[in-house]
C-alpha cells in the first residue's frame, strides 16, 4: 500500500509495545510517508526521543511547554500539519484521556486540538482492555469517529493470554493506508453537507432559530467520510461535536451558509440537510432593542436565499448530484415532489416532522426518497442508518461500487 507524500503524526504512549512503534516508523517511511513523532513521558520509559528522531529524520516532540518547540512549530500546528494521526500504542490511560477530552500533556492536547482523522492501535494488559471503563472509552472514541486497529489476541508481556496485544506494524500500515487512500462507494468524491439550523439575528443578542439538532446532517457527513469521500460539513449552530475526518465549517446565518457552500465548491455531491431559516430580520440594528412601556418592536422580515435552489440552478460548478431534504408536517410526498421541481435538485429526502413523531432532535427518522425515478419509502431507521443507506445509494448513483 503506497503512502507516497502522506504526512503522519505518530503519537507513541507508554506501553511495552512502544518498541514496535520504532519498526512502524520504518514501515511507514518505506511506503513513502513522512513521519513526525510525539512521545508521552510514559513512552520515554521504553524508547527514547533520539531513537524516534533517528528513524523519522525529524525532530521528536515531547513537551507541551517546550519553548523551542512552541516557537518553531507549536502544538496547534502539530495538530494540523499532517494527513493522519496514528496513536500506537494507545494505552488505556491515553484512551481514557481522549474519551474524556483531557489535555494535560503534549500528546493529549494535540489529540484534542486536531480535526484530522485519528487511528488508534490499543495495547494493554488483557484485563485492562476488557475492563468496562476501557470498553466504555472505546465506544465513546468510536462514536467520535476515531478509527481503531486491533488489538490482537495472543501471548502478552506479563505471561497472560487474550486480547490486548498491539497490532503488528504492517497491520497498522494497512489500516493507515485504507484511511489515506480510501476505498468505498464515495472514494475520491468531494461531498458538501449542510446541517443544523441557522440563527438569524434580531439584534446583537437575540435571534430567530428552529428546532433542528443537526443530528441527521452530521450523521450523513460521518457516513460519507466513512464511505471514502472528502467531506466539507457546513453547520449552523449545533451542540454536536465536529466529526473526525471531516472539514467542518461553522456558520450562523443562512447568508453565511450560502457563502461557505459557494467557497467549498466544486463538489461531486451536495447534500443540503440544514433547516435553513426562510426569513431573516431586515431591520436589525447594531444595538440591543430596548423594552419600552406599551410599545412592541416591529420586526420586518425579508426572504433568505434558498441555498439548495441557488446551487442547484447554477450553470457553472453545479455538483452533478444535488440532494435536498423536505421536512413537512402534512402531504409529505406531494410537497416533496413539488420541491424537487421547484428547487431543481436531483433527489429529495422527505420526512414527516410533526411534533408527535419527534424527528426534530430525535434519534430516528422515516424517510421517502423522491426523484424523477419515483418514490421509495424506507422503514423507520436510526438517523445513523438513514445516513449509511443514503450514502450507499448516492455512491451507486454516482457510479461508485455499492
Ligand atoms: O423549502 P424548504 O425549506 O422546505 O426546503 C428544504 C430544503 O431546502 C432542504 O434541503 C434545505 O436544506 C434547503 N433550503 C436551503 N435554503 C433555504 C431553505 C431551504 O438550502 N433558504
Could you give the topology of this structure?
Blueprint: E1 7-12, H1 18-30, E2 34-39, H2 49-56, H3 67-72, H4 75-80, E3 84-90, H5 92-100, H6 106-113, E4 118-122, H7 126-130, H8 132-143, E5 147-148, E6 152-155, E7 161-165, H9 169-180, E8 190-195, E9 200-201, E10 207-208, H10 215-226, E11 230-235, E12 247-250, H11 254-264, E13 269-272, E14 279-281, E15 301-303, H12 307-312, E16 321-328, H13 332-343, E17 347-352, E18 364-365, E19 367-371, E20 374-377, E21 381-382, H14 383-397
Helix pairs in contact: 1-2, 1-9, 5-8, 10-14
This protein binds cytidine-5'-monophosphate.
3D architecture notes:
- It is a single chain.
- The protein is α/β, with parallel strands linked by helices and 402 residues long.
- It has two domains: 174 residues, Flavin prenyltransferase-like (Rossmann fold), CATH 3.40.50; 208 residues, CoaB-like (Rossmann fold, 3-Layer(aba) Sandwich).
- It is built from 14 helices and 21 strands.
- The strands form six sheets. An eight-stranded mixed sheet has the order 12-11-8-13-16-17-19-20, sandwiched between helices.
- Strand 9 and strand 10 form a beta hairpin.
- Helix 1 runs parallel beside helix 2 and helix 5 crosses helix 8.
- It binds cytidine-5'-monophosphate.
- Cytidine-5'-monophosphate (C5P) binds next to helix 12 and strand 16.
Amino acid at each position: 500500500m503506497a503512502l507516497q507524500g502522506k504526512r503522519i503524526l505518530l503519537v507513541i504512549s507508554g506501553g511495552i509495545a512502544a518498541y514496535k512503534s520504532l519498526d512502524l516508523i520504518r514501515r511507514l517511511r518505506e511506503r513513502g510517508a513522512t513521519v513526525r513523532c510525539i512521545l508521552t513521558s510514559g513512552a520515554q520509559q521504553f524508547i527514547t526521543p533520539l531513537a524516534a528522531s533517528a528513524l523519522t529524520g525529524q525532530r521528536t516532540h515531547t513537551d507541551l511547554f517546550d519553548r523551542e518547540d512552541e516557537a518553531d512549530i507549536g502544538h496547534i500546528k502539530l495538530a494540523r500539519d499532517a494527513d493522519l494521526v496514528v496513536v500506537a500504542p494507545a494505552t488505556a490511560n491515553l484512551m481514557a484521556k481522549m474519551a474524556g477530552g483531557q489535555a494535560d500533556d503534549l500528546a493529549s492536547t494535540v489529540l484534542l486540538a486536531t480535526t484530522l482523522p485519528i487511528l488508534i492501535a490499543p495495547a494493554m494488559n488483557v484485563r485492562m482492555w476488557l475492563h468496562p471503563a476501557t470498553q466504555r472509552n472505546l465506544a465513546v472514541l468510536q462514536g467520535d469517529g476515531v478509527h481503531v486497529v486491533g488489538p490482537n489476541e495472543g501471548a502478552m508481556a506479563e505471561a497472560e493470554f487474550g486480547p490486548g496485544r498491539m497490532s503488528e506494524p504492517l497491520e497498522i500500515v494497512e489500516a493507515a493506508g485504507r484511511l489515506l487512500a480510501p476505498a468505498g462507494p464515495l472514494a475520491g468524491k468531494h461531498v458538501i453537507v449542510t446541517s443544523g439550523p441557522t440563527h438569524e439575528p434580531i439584534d446583537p443578542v437575540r435571534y430567530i432559530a428552529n428546532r433542528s439538532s443537526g443530528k441527521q446532517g452530521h450523521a450523513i457527513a460521518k457516513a460519507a467520510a466513512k464511505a471514502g469521500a472528502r467531506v466539507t460539513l457546513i453547520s449552523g449552530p449545533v451542540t454536536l461535536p465536529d466529526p473526525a475526518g471531516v472539514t467542518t465549517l461553522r456558520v450562523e446565518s443562512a447568508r453565511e451558509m450560502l457563502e461557505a457552500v459557494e467557497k467549498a465548491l466544486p463538489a461531486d455531491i451536495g447534500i443540503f440537510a440544514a433547516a435553513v431559516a426562510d426569513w431573516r430580520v431586515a431591520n436589525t440594528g447594531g444595538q440591543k432593542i430596548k423594552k419600552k412601556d406599551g410599545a412592541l418592536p416591529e420586526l420586518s422580515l425579508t426572504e433568505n436565499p434558498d441555498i439548495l435552489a441557488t446551487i442547484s440552478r447554477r450553470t457553472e460548478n453545479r455538483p452533478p448530484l444535488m440532494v435536498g431534504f423536505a421536512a413537512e408536517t402534512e402531504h409529505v410526498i406531494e410537497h416533496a415532489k413539488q420541491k424537487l421541481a421547484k428547487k431543481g435538485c436531483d433527489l429529495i429526502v422527505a420526512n414527516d416532522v410533526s411534533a408527535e413523531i419527534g424527528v426534530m432532535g430525535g434519534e430516528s427518522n422515516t424517510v421517502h426518497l423522491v426523484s424523477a425515478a419515483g418514490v421509495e419509502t424506507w422503514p423507520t431507521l436510526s438517523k445513523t442508518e438513514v445516513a449509511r443507506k443514503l450514502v450507499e445509494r448516492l455512491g451507486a448513483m454516482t457510479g461508485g461500487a455499492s
